[in-house]
Amino acid sequence: MEKKSPQKRLILALLVGISLVFILAYQNCGSNGSNDNSGGTTSSSSTNIVITSEPSDLNVDIGDSFRLTVLAKSEDDLDLTYSWYKDGVDTGVKSNSISINSASEESEGYYHIRISNGEDSIESRYIQVQVGASYGTSSIGIEITKEPQPITIENGETGFLDVQAEDDSRDSNLTYQWYRNGSAISGAQQSEFYIENASEAAEGYYYVLISKENKSVKSNTVFVTVEGASCPSGSTEYNGHCYIRYGSKLSYYSAAESCRVKDGYLARVTSSAEQTFLIGQGFYGWIG
Question: Are both 50 and 115 inside the same structural domain?
């Protein structure tokens, strides 16, 4: 067997051999390191992509235009592709900039970009955009008097989000609908939303739409973190990562894309201890 260089050991997770096995490694099992809102350059020892510039959080008025731009480079000089997300949902924008010509209540939330060079991918920090005039707005007759706040819940415990609002007639005929990552949560139609037996699946971006008759107002968007969450069913945890084995025979790029859409990446063996663990778990195949 040809001895591989340390660089190749860092880059390749699994090589095509007699038996081809792909492993998805879900980064930072039980935590979400991507929602760091600090500024500065973003890089990762597990990728060859470096983000050199990313925007600060924004607060704009309704009707204002704004643009978010991220600059990045591939250390391997590979072409980069981009995908922008808002509140965890793909916006369909595939360039390094996303523009809003006229900000509305629906424009506010958390934006981030996923950058890939065909072999590796990296995500930017989460950029919060607030549309100032939409908070507690009374121009449509509904006023939010208390916004939801970000919370952290221990795995298996219960947490809740709440909002307080009133309309100009001061009656109580308001309706509520909570959303997670842009999708309505079934049965979450009270001013308080309880997250029971919290797991990794509960992490995400939440807001509530408050309505009366034909008028409505959207709360701010907050992130819910679940600490100590276990790995997804069917995976194996090692050193803060969750590994899933797949037996499909795919090209490297197809396998990498398959991992990406599952919020994972092809496992990279960075130590002899990790390699021993993988082999011990039955992850057979040629591992660099």
Answer: yes
What is the distance in angstroms between the CA of the first residue and the CA of the last residue of the chain? 11
Q: Are residues 127 and 201 in the same domain?
A: no
**HEC assignment per residue over 75-131:** CCCCCCEEEEEECCEECCCCCCEEEECCCCHHHCEEEEEEEECCCCEEECCCEEEEE
Q: Rounded distance, CA 96 to CA 71, Å?
A: 7
For 127-176, write each residue's pLDDT tens digit: 888 886 444 444 467 888 999 999 999 988 999 999 999 887 666 689 99
Confirm whether pTM is higher than 0.70. no
Number of domains in the chain: 3
Same domain, 111 and 62: yes
235-247: per-residue pLDDT in tens? 777 766 677 776 6
Local structure of residue 284 (DSSP, 8 states):
-
Give the dihedral sign, CA 23/27/31/35: negative
Q: Is 212 in contact with 140 (CB distance < 8 Å)?
A: no
Convert the pLDDT of each residue in 31-40 to its tens digit: 333 344 433 4
Do 113 and 44 lie in a common domain?
yes
Total count of residues recorded for the chain: 288
